[in-house]
Amino acid sequence: MTEQMRRPRRGQGELEARVLAALREAPGPVTAGWVQEWLGEPLAYTTVVTILTRLHTKQAVARERAGRSFVWIPADEAGLAARRMRKVLDAERDRGAVLASFVTDLSPDDEQLLRELLGGAGD
Amino acid sequence: MGVFVVLPLVLPLTAWPIARLAGPRLHPRTATRVLSLVGGVLAVCSTLCLLLLMVAGTAQLPGNPLPDAWADPEVRAVVPYDEAVGQAALLVLAAVALACGHLLWRHGRVRAGAARALTGLPPSRRAVLPDERPYAYALPGGPRGRGRVVVSSGMLDLLDAREREALIAHEEAHLTGRHHRFLLVAGLAARANPFLRPLRSAVAFTAERWADEDAARAVGDRRVVARAIGKAALASGPGRGLRGVPPLPAFAAGPAPGPVPRRVAALLRPVPPARAWPPAGTAAGLALWTATAGAAASALSSANATLVLVTVLRGATSAL
User: N or C end: fewer C-beta atoms under 10 angstroms in chain B?
Assistant: First the structure.
C-alpha cells in the first residue's frame, strides 16, 4: 500500500500511450522485451505483453509471429481510421442517410442526363 | 375543440405542394430554412393535437393525467371526446415517439461512430482517409467540438486541384451553415406526421444546393463545382455511393431526374436571386403563402384546442 502511495498510480491509458510511442520510435518490428527496455521503467515483462495485447485487440498495433513469440509494430492510424469509417458508413448506408453525402446514387437515366449536362459544360 | 383538433393532423398535406413549388424556385438557403421551419411547426402542432385527442379520449384508462373532475358528466358534455379515437391516438403517439427516438439514436450513433473512427488522427479540420471508394462527408461537431470534413483519397484522386477546392468548400458550407440541424428537424417532422415526408426530401436537396452555391461563391466558378459533383457521382457508380433521398414524384410521366443532375443543372444556370420573399403572383410566392397560411392555421387550431381543454378543465376543477 505504501508503495502505491509513494508512486502515483498511472492510468492504463497512459501506459498504452507510452507503449505505442515506444513502437513508433522502434526501428522496425520489435519484441516485447525491446519495448520493456525502451520504457526504462520497473515494469514487469508480463505487464508489457498485457498492454501490447490490449492494444492489439483495439487494433492499434499489429503483430507477427517470430519464432516462439511475437514482434510488434504500430498500426497505420490513417488506414485504421479508414476501415473504421467504412464500417460506420456501410452500417448507415442500409438505413438511409444521417450524414449528407457529397453525391448520391445515380439511376441509369440520371447518368445519361449528367453526361449530357457535363458534355455541354466542358470548356 | 371539434374540427380544430383534427385540422393540424391534415394540414401537413400542404407540405407536398409547398415542397414542389418552393424547393426548386427559392434560393436554396431560404428554401432550407423555410421548409424545415414549416415542417417543424406543422409537426409540433400535429403531435400536440394527437396528445389532446389521447388525453381527452382515454380518461377511463388508469394513469391518465386528467383530474378527477373529468368524471363529472357536465364537464364531459362540454368537451367532445371519443374513446376509440383516443386509444388510436395513444398508439399513434407511441409510434411517433418510437420513430423519433430511433432517428435521434441513429444520429447519435453514426456521429459517435464517425468521431471514434477518427480518434487516432491528428485533430485537424480535414481528415483524408486512405480508401479507394470515393466519399466525402461533413461530420458536425458536438456542442463544444468543431466539425470535420472527411474525404477519402479515392475522392481526391478523381478531382483536379480546383475541383478539390470546390468539394472542400461544399463540405465546409455544410458545417458552417449547420445544415445537419435542418435535416434533423425535417427528419423528425417526417416521422411525426408522414404527410411531411415531401419536406424531408426537399430539405435534403435544398441543403445540398445551399452548400453548392456557397462552394461556387468560394471558388468563384460555378462550372468547377458542377464538374466536381458530376465526376464524383459518375465515379461512385450505381450502388456504390450512399443511397440518396428519392426525388419528389413528378407531375409529368416518366421518372424525374435525380438530385445529382438537378444540382449540376442548377449550377450551370446563373446564380439564383437571393430575394427573401418572392412576389405573391409567382409559384414560389404562392408556395410561401400556402406554407405560412398552413403553418399559421395549424398553430392557431392547436393553440385553440389546447386552450379550450385547459380552460374547461380548470373551470371544472375549480367548480367542484
Answer: C
